[in-house]
Design brief:
The complex is a heterodimer of chains A (162) and B (786). Chain A is an alpha+beta fold and 162 residues long. Chain A is built from 5 helices and 5 strands, in the order ββαβββαααα. In chain A, 35% of the residues lie in helices and 15% in strands. Classes of the chains: A alpha+beta (162), B alpha+beta (786).
Chain lengths: 162, 786
């Protein structure tokens, strides 16, 4: 497994030229090769969703994707969510609704929700629960996460989205 | 214990958004896995594939051939280092868990060999080439097998496979039995499960260039205890070991232990003089960190015709797996059950025998609530069964047995400070009344509705005497904080606690801000670092806010007194007439006579010529707060409303209501969050989570597809109601809260299922297949009651 591929990961608008083994997961490449450690690894088998990011407009579990598959694609991670000091409505809503405790799963929930709300800010309650079933949180009991995403959706619908 | 409240609290009691959140929602938190050190080696463990075997040989020739740069260490290299978690209670059979197995393995996942390379992928390749030859031994996969006559002993010089067997008694149990009209005997079982934080464990250790300082970054809840253990085991001086718990992604008790991996990584860093990193993967976490629960309780209640319990006899057996864990030991879970079973009831005679059985499974350690979720399941199931057998309304039966007056000293000698047991029952009765009505007349013929409740108390913030009695390695019950006001009047608080979601950075700042008349935003709370904080016992046991927060409050009070003394001289006023508020020291009722806290802080450190004669410069204080001797007793009642589909066995949780009393509330938003999160963990315990082993001791639930955690759908909104009965024996009347949410749900849900079907529930998890079996035995809808 010593053969390596030269690829470019475009993370939140910044190109990272790296050299990786073909088997290297996207999550590991983002964290270890590019140094963006906000994407967390919770299970490495695609169930917990802590590593959820957006690749070429799709929410993906970065532990289930190889870095080479993301070569040249536009990737968004939690580090790109805020605009400088100005937090994104989703981030603000998570704080306002106490939707995190230890915060380890939070980047995954934020990116999962971001993808869904950018696609459809009118997401109904049932659809929202279905969506949030994708990821695991062990601290909050989910109630406040549901409220936060609902709250952020209202703000995003009102057109505050950047 | 007296604590002056300086003035009307402004921040204590307020719903303040968490100060720690911005970094956590921005990907700026730094966990162990996020740290990279130059020259770092990655560790992969070769783990036992058999539950019980002798190690015939470990062949590393393929590893050396394929990975010439890899390093490998086995039990022979590391020698006698181990996890020694033995109390000196008389019946204890001591054991040592080797850091790397020597001669014998005792559970699937036990570390056998350590492999090091320079990256996290190649090290897994290299570890796979290590060939371990085992000679299988008979497997003790459950309590019955382990205790069967002739079963092989788990450890040398052991007689029988018990870590401990003890009893606790009070009152005259024989007389209670003789006087009883009814003897009600039941057996209850809880399954094996675990805390399962979303961040797995991780450790990095590195020597400084001089080789004199060993720094260990660990995702631990107990940095100081870890330092002490490492120093003892590695024979290092404590001042040369720094333990840092950086951001920690959840703990729930799992990370409140010193593990073999912690000692191993530290030893490897010393041995190789290279930084060593070990990050647990999820499979390792699920099979080889620690598990929790797996209890069997046989209870016998001696009851009068009116339903008064005269005596309670308990036989408590816990399958604690292969080793005793540090610092809580193998006695922790069964001992806790034996201690807490009398609960909020006035029981005059009690006899409990508890034992910890050694089996070839992952060791049992602490998980939110420790023995209490199982104890309360049994206690509150028993209360329901007594009520049903005697034809008494379950709430009424509880009321007849409740403690009446406070303080109350129970049959084992524990004194309960002050609670609201009776009020909470009244309140829950009102809250679930509509559901009780619905349960009597369900609208759909194939749906049954049930309402169940669990009343319990939780001893929190235990003081030193409680740990002295346990004679476990914890030994002590205090907590500490260091508070320093800087020349610009900003403040640092250093707590030895480790915060992994509890919000200490906010709640401690609220406590300190009220003392010093400044804003929470002026205060930086640091934690989880033995370099910067005084000695601490750690974050577990629902002790953080009461003891750690209490220590921060007291230390801030010392600084407050000093600021006031300086102000008093300047303002020519008596100290007792001065208050600190709005970043000012001012004479009460005379706003013209005031001086800024910032000026006072600068004088105390930069312009010390302005200080009163004889006053030492500086604004730093340390406080140690020990818990009350018997702790402080939080209480709660949980109620569950379920709907059961008779045609499918599906169980739907329609409502979950909590009435809790944790005394003085510092931040209601955080309290509600802790309650809700705990309840959902308890719902997982009640319905889904189960570590399953086969008869060969092979774990069958090794990933998140097989081990089912609660997820967003299928959960009701958890309704939380508060009663605040401040404790007379803690700082500001605070009581611990962290664990309570997880304690009641299994009992409340089981009681609700019983209420719906008229059939008792004796075991968790209450899976659809179990519900299906209960449906087959269902009785007609009962006349009433919860």
């Amino acid at each position: 497994m010593t053969q390596r591929a030269a690829i470019v990961l475009n993370l939140n608008g910044v190109d990272h030229a790296i050299s990786v083994e073909p088997r290297r997961t996207l999550a590991d490449a983002i964290r270890d090769d590019c140094g963006l450690t906000g994407t967390h690894i919770g299970c490495e088998h695609g169930v917990c969703g802590a590593c959820t990011i957006i690749v070429a407009g799709e929410a993906v579990r970065s532990c289930l994707m190889f870095a080479v598959q993301a070569d040249g694609k536009r990737i968004r991670t939690v580090e790109g969510l805020a605009d400088g000091e100005q937090l994104h409505p989703l981030q603000e809503a998570f704080i306002a609704h106490h939707a995190l405790q230890c915060g380890f799963c939070t980047p995954g929930f934020l990116m999962l929700s971001l993808h869904a709300l950018e696609r459809d800010p009118d997401l109904g309650d049932e659809e929202l629960l279905d969506l949030l079933a994708s990821n695991l949180c062990r601290c909050t009991g989910y109630q406040n996460i549901v409220k936060a995403v609902r709250g952020a959706a209202a703000v995003m619908r009102a057109g505050v989205v950047r | 214990m007296t604590d002056r409240t300086p003035h009307q609290p402004r921040f204590v009691g307020a719903r303040i958004l968490r100060l720690e959140d911005p970094r956590l929602v921005s990907g700026q938190a730094r966990h162990v896995d996020d740290l990279v050190l130059p020259g770092m080696l990655h560790l992969r463990l070769v783990r036992s594939q058999l539950a019980h075997a002798t190690l015939a040989s470990i062949d590393v020739s393929a590893l050396h051939a394929g990975f010439p740069d890899a390093l490998v260490f086995t039990g022979q290299d590391i020698g006698a280092l181990g996890i020694r978690a033995n109390s000196d209670l008389p019946s204890v059979q001591p054991c040592v868990q080797p850091i790397l197995a020597r001669e014998r393995v005792r559970f699937v996942g036990e570390p056998v060999a350590a492999v090091l390379t320079t990256d996290s992928y190649s090290v897994e390749d290299a570890a796979e080439t290590v060939f371990v030859d085992y000679d299988a031994l008979p497997v003790l996969a459950d309590i019955e097998t382990a205790l069967a006559p002739g079963a092989p002993a788990m450890f040398e010089n052991w007689r029988g496979n018990l870590f401990i067997e003890q009893s606790r008694t009070g009152g005259d149990i024989a007389a209670a039995r003789a006087r009883a009209r009814h003897v009600i005997r039941r057996t209850y079982r809880n399954q094996r499960q675990a805390g399962v934080p979303m961040e797995c464990r991780g450790v990095i250790a590195a020597l400084d260039p001089t080789g004199r300082i060993l720094t260990v970054w660990s995702s631990t809840q107990i940095p100081h205890l870890m330092r002490t253990y490492l120093a003892q085991e590695l024979n290092w001086q404590e001042n040369r070991i720094h333990v840092i718990a950086p951001e920690v992604g959840g703990g729930f008790g799992v990370k409140g232990h010193v593990f073999a991996e912690d000692v191993l990584v530290a030893w490897l860093a010393i041995r190789t003089r290279r930084p060593i990193k070990w990050i647990e993967d999820r499979r390792e976490h699920l099979i080889a960190s620690i598990h929790a629960r797996e209890h069997v309780h046989v209870l016998e209640a001696y009851v009068t015709a009116e339903g008064k319990i005269l005596g309670l006899k308990a036989d408590i057996t816990v399958d604690v797996g292969a080793y005793s864990v540090w610092p809580f030991t193998a006695a922790s879970d069964p001992g806790m059950v034996a201690k807490v079973l009398p609960g909020p009831y006035d029981i005059a005679a009690y006899e409990a025998t508890y034992r910890a059985v050694a089996t070839n499974k992952c060791p049992i350690g602490t998980y939110r609530g420790v023995g209490r979720p199982a104890a309360v399941f049994s206690q509150e199931r028993l209360m329901n069964e007594i009520a049903i057998e005697l034809g008494i309304d379950p709430i009424t039966l509880r009321e007849r047995n409740l403690i009446g007056q406070f303080p109350y000293t129970n049959i084992l000698g524990y004194t309960y400070d002050k609670g609201s047991y009776a009020e909470s029952l009244v309140k829950i009765r009102e809250l679930v009344a509509p559901d009780v009505e619905r349960a009597r007349k369900p609208e759909k013929p194939h749906i049954r509705i049930g309402v169940g409740l669990a009343l319990f108390l939780e001893q929190t913030a235990h003081g030193t005497p409680d740990f002295v009695r346990r004679r476990s390695p914890i030994e002590t019950g205090y907590e500490s904080a260091k508070v320093e006001m800087h020349p610009d009047a900003t403040v640092s608080v250093d707590s030895g606690l480790q915060c992994h979601g509890q919000g200490h950075e906010t709640t401690f700042a609220q406590l300190v801000a009220d003392q010093l008349g400044i804003l929470p935003a002026d205060i930086l709370v640091r934690h989880g670092n033995t370099v910067t904080s005084p000695y601490s016992v750690g974050t577990w046991g629902s002790r953080g806010i009461t003891l750690g927060g209490g220590a921060a409050h007291r230390a801030a009070g010392i600084i407050r007194d000093k600021l006031i003394a300086i102000a008093a001289q300047h303002l020519q006023a008596r100290p007792e007439t001065i208050e600190l508020a709005d970043r000012q020291a001012r004479v009460k009722g005379d706003p013209t006579r005031a001086i800024g806290v910032e000026t006072l802080a600068r004088w105390a450190q930069r312009n010390v010529e302005n200080l009163p004669p004889g006053m030492e410069p500086g604004l730093i204080a340390i406080s140690f707060v020990d818990g009350p001797p018997d702790g402080s007793y939080t209480n709660a009642v949980h109620a569950a409303v379920v709907e059961i589909d008779l045609s499918t066995g599906q169980i739907k949780l329609k409502r979950f209501v909590v009435v809790e009393d944790c005394g003085t509330i510092v931040n209601p938003m955080i309290v509600d969050g802790q309650v809700r999160g705990g309840v959902v963990q308890g719902i997982g315990s009640a319905l889904w989570e189960h570590f399953v082993y086969d008869k060969d001791g092979q774990p069958l639930t090794t990933n998140f597809a097989d081990y089912l955690l609660p997820s967003a759908p299928g959960l009701p909104d958890i309704e939380v109601h508060h009663i605040q009965t401040p404790s007379p024996v803690t700082p500001l009347g605070m009581k611990g809260l962290g664990e309570g949410g997880a304690i009641g749900p299994a009992a409340a849900i089981a009681n609700a299922v019983e209420n719906a079907l008229g059939v008792p529930v004796q075991e968790t998890p209450i899976t659809p297949s179990r519900v299906w079996e209960l449906i087959k035995k269902r009785k007609p809808i009962a006349a009433g009651g919860v």
